[in-house]
Amino acid sequence: AQTVTQSQPEMSVQEAETVTLSCTYDTSENNYYLFWYKQPPSRQMILVIRQEAYKQQNATENRFSVNFQKAAKSFSLKISDSQLGDTAMYFCAFMKAGGTSYGKLTFGQGTILTVHP
Amino acid sequence: DVKVTQSSRYLVKRTGEKVFLECVQDMDHENMFWYRQDPGLGLRLIYFSYDVKMKEKGDIPEGYSVSREKKERFSLILESASTNQTSMYLCASTPGGGPYNEQFFGPGTRLTVL
């Protein structure tokens, strides 16, 4: 079984600054995917960024980037130039690769990020 | 535009009642999921379905059942609601196949059991 751990229950950052959210995971699988999801207050969960474990290059999506360290089983999210709209709960998630996974996700506990003006 | 809807945003029920939570997706997705979200625990998978009438238990299925009679609809049933089932319930769907699939989430149902 997989486990995902987010050790920072809450984080805060000033607008326009950079913040990094931590995530570690434990698995015996070699082929998998990692995700960061964002849940804004009272709004639907949406995908922020994803990483394939077989790719060494870190994924980036505009102001969002990850630092994927496969050997250390670490998958942190960096948000650059933070904006007020980034205020949300962020979840790290793991998906085993392969047809029998059916796209099931294992989530971390979540980190509440508050961006201050 | 991708859409997952849930029948209620807020629901209040009494202990022992039978509760139905409905989820509908309009994307023709094969796979559908029910999670519960609790503070400090993140999202935990209750049940999922990979095809019509097919279902599998997730990590915390006790006290719940599901039904998927049509591809677009996935229902979560609390046979006899208890106070420890007070939680936020999230439905999600994802297409089958492909190397990895983004899950699309509904807005959630906040259930309170008194």
Structure explained in plain terms:
The complex is a heterodimer of chains A (117) and B (114). In chain A, a hairpin with a 2-residue loop joins strand 7 and strand 8. Chain A is globular. Chain A has strands at 3-5, 10-14, 19-21, 24-26, 32-39, 46-52, 60-61, 64-69, 74-79, 88-96, 106-107, 111-116. Chain A starts with a strand and ends with a strand. Chain A is an all-beta fold. The mean pLDDT of chain A is 94. Chain B has 114 residues and is mainly β. Chain B has no helices and 11 strands. In chain B, the strands form 2 sheets. In chain B, strands 2, 4, 5, 6, 9, 10 and 11 form a 7-stranded mixed beta sheet that branches. The termini of chain B are far apart. The model of chain B has no long low-confidence stretch (mean pLDDT 93). The A-B interface holds A 4, 6, 9, 33, 35, 37, 43-47, 50, 52, 91, 95, 97, 99, 102-110 and B 4, 31, 33, 35, 40-45, 48, 50, 56, 58, 90, 92, 94, 96-97, 99-103, 105-108.
How many strand elements of chain A? 12
Distance between the termini of chain B: 37 Å
Report the biggest beta sheet of chain B as strand number plus sense, adding barrel if it closes: 7 strands, mixed
Helix content of chain A: under 10%
Described by its quaternary structure, the protein is heterodimer
The portion of residues forming beta strands of chain B comes to over 45%
Structural class of chain A: mainly beta
Largest sheet entry of chain A: 6 strands, mixed
Roughly what percent helix of chain B? Answer: under 10%
